[in-house]
UniProtKB/TrEMBL annotation:
Gene3D superfamilies: Protein tyrosine phosphatase superfamily. It holds the Pfam family Y_phosphatase. SMART domains: PTPc. Residues 37-118 form the Tyrosine-protein phosphatase domain. The keyword Hydrolase applies. Coiled coil: none annotated. It comes from Meloidogyne incognita. One of its GO terms (molecular function) is protein kinase binding. Its EC number is 3.1.3.48. GO terms for cellular component: cytoplasm; endomembrane system; nucleus. This is protein-tyrosine-phosphatase. The lineage of its organism: Eukaryota, Metazoa, Ecdysozoa, Nematoda, Chromadorea. Its main location: membrane. It is found in: Endomembrane system.
């Protein structure tokens, strides 16, 4: 089997597994509760079964943040995958950082997008 065929086979297997897993998961909470103003992109949503809820919130709407936990037991590491905060979700973002006891925050994103500044964070030391 040459490299192209092998890569295609792997891609098909991953694609099939992804479809199978996606059928078991839902986006009902996100879609039915109209959280569109809390999502940077309308097609990047956390699954109901695997999303972080803000603990200090008094309602489902306040508890919503577009973030999902990722546990890597073999690496003994836990991560949070989330969107860059919007102006109206910056407080939620920092609340999640506090509640989840995050010690390091790394952003993998461009600062500018379509000639607009996407994110501005002050850097704190100490």
């Amino acid at each position: 089997m040459n490299d192209n065929n092998q890569h295609f086979f792997i891609f098909q297997k991953v694609n099939s597994e992804s479809d199978s897993q996606a059928k078991k998961l839902s986006l009902c909470c996100n879609l039915s509760n109209n959280f569109h103003e809390k999502n940077r992109y309308r097609n990047v949503l956390p699954y109901d079964q695997n999303r972080i809820k803000l603990q200090s919130a008094s309602s489902e709407h306040e508890a919503y943040i577009n973030a999902s936990p990722l546990e890597l037991p073999f690496a003994k590491r836990n991560y949070i995958l989330t969107q860059g905060p919007l102006p109206n979700t910056t407080g939620d973002f920092w609340q999640m950082i506090y509640e989840q006891n995050v010690s390091i925050c790394i952003m993998l994103s461009k600062v500018m997008e379509k000639s607009f500044v996407k994110f501005v964070f002050k850097i704190f030391f100490g």
